[in-house]
Specification:
By secondary structure, the chain is of the alpha/beta class. It is built from 13 helices and 17 strands.
Length: 419
């Protein structure tokens, strides 16, 4: 038998009389009755003696990747797979912002609400660009500004892209980030024509529980209209409706009350709730926001509370291997401004920085080189989950600070980690 060793990506977990082991690479876990011999073995003591005396257990651990061949280099494997993922030429992923205008003036928005970006009909240029690719998947993400201000344009361009995809047996999928206001009156034909299956809407209140005013430019509060849009999408049968709550020191104390209200609403309780860290954009200052470390505990506790109310939430950590933190690191992702300008990162759309080209001259789009991961990331057992985090923020993802607690919650309580 070849020499073996433990996987780099194992995580040992203890709760009461149970011992769990989870592998971040294979996503497999096993639970045992806790005993000292087993603990010593997983801690690396008496390794060879233990496996000789427990061949069935050894086979099980080897089968699920907790024990691997001594010559195997898991990190190199992951990095090779990362390169293949980044350079996948069978996909084109497009973030399309039909406008940078918005019908609201949200205090925490990171986009510069400006009419300075000239809006053009990029349909023909975009289709010409797509046709240069030998692809199997078109992945579209409608963004803004508020994309629904150009609702007819979205429907028209969606039809053109779907027609092209159908003609060449290409899979077409779409999602949208929106405030939802202009979707409160759409009917099911909108979902059929655009094939948008996932919507993300930020929410800031319910009835008397209001922690951020979402105002129209005439000063009228928009929260009721936002919730009506979210409700309509749920009732129309949209596959996935994410109700995102952006959390800061200003509003964190109200969130549990808000969740209790949602849990009693027969329509809104069917949304999938996401708790995200508010960043110091717009009118939010550095003193208003939590650190990633602080927020990791807050987010985890809110997820557990939401579950106790019977609400669904987004994943506590990535279920699949994350070869990139976001698609901006890949060669097939493009953020498209209303004037046809092309960027790699969504955050660059409104301030005209880091532009890599234009759809109207797509042959000269420049492709930035992939970043080199930090040494500390390469030696981190959480590498398969985050691959270095956000390039701009230069911090570890929120979930990493409480990953063991999250694992124990899911594994020992048999909680579904939705993703």
């Amino acid at each position: 038998m070849n020499k073996t060793k433990f996987s780099t990506y194992n995580e040992l977990l203890f709760q009461n009389n149970k011992l769990g082991i989870y592998n971040y690479y294979t996503k497999r876990f096993l639970i045992f009755e806790k005993n000292n011999d087993l603990i010593d073995f997983f801690m690396g003591y008496k390794y060879n003696t233990f496996i000789k005396q427990n061949q069935d257990l050894f086979s099980l651990l080897f089968c699920h990747g907790f024990i691997i061949d001594n010559k195997r280099d898991e990190c190199s494997e992951l990095l090779k797979k990362r390169v293949n993922f980044i350079q996948n030429d069978s996909i084109i992923a497009l973030l399309v912002a039909p406008t940078m205008r918005c019908n609201l003036q949200c205090i925490y928005c990171f986009q510069h609400m400006t009419n300075m970006i000239h809006e053009k009909d990029i349909s023909d240029a975009l289709l010409s660009f797509i046709k240069t690719k030998q692809i199997q998947l078109i992945d579209v993400r409608w963004f803004g500004g508020e994309p629904t201000l150009k609702l007819d344009y979205i429907i028209s361009l969606s039809k053109k892209m779907r027609l092209y995809a159908a003609s060449y047996d290409i899979i077409y999928q779409a999602e949208m980030t929106t405030n939802g206001i202009l979707l409160k009156d759409v009917d099911v034909s909108f979902l059929e024509e655009t094939q948008i299956t996932r919507f993300q809407i930020s929410i800031d209140g319910y009835d008397e529980y209001l922690f951020h005013e979402r105002l129209y430019y005439n000063g009228k509060d928009a929260n009721i209209d936002i919730l009506d849009g979210l409700k309509n999408l749920i009732q129309l049968g949209a596959k996935e409706v994410i109700a995102r709550i952006n959390i800061s020191k200003i509003n964190v104390h109200i969130v549990p009350q808000l969740l209790r209200c949602f849990s009693k609403d027969n329509i809104l309780r069917r949304a999938i709730f996401a708790f995200d860290l508010m960043m110091p954009y717009g009118g939010i200052t550095e003193s208003d926001v939590f650190s990633e470390y602080e927020f990791s505990y807050i987010q985890f506790n809110l997820v557990k509370y939401a579950h106790s109310l019977g609400l669904n939430t987004t994943a506590l950590f990535p279920q699949q291997i994350k070869y990139v933190h976001c698609l901006a690191e890949t060669s097939y992702y493009y953020s498209l401004a209303p004037d046809g300008a092309v960027y790699k990162c969504d955050f660059d759309l409104s301030n005209n920085t880091n532009k890599i080209g234009t759809l109207f001259d797509y042959k000269n789009i420049a492709y930035p080189q992939s970043r080199i991961l930090k040494t500390k990331c390469l030696y981190c057992k959480l590498l398969p989950l985050c691959f270095g985090g956000c390039m701009k923020e230069n911090t570890c993802p929120v979930f990493t600070y409480t990953i063991k607690d999250r694992l124990k919650y899911i594994i020992f309580n048999k909680v579904n980690n939705n993703e």
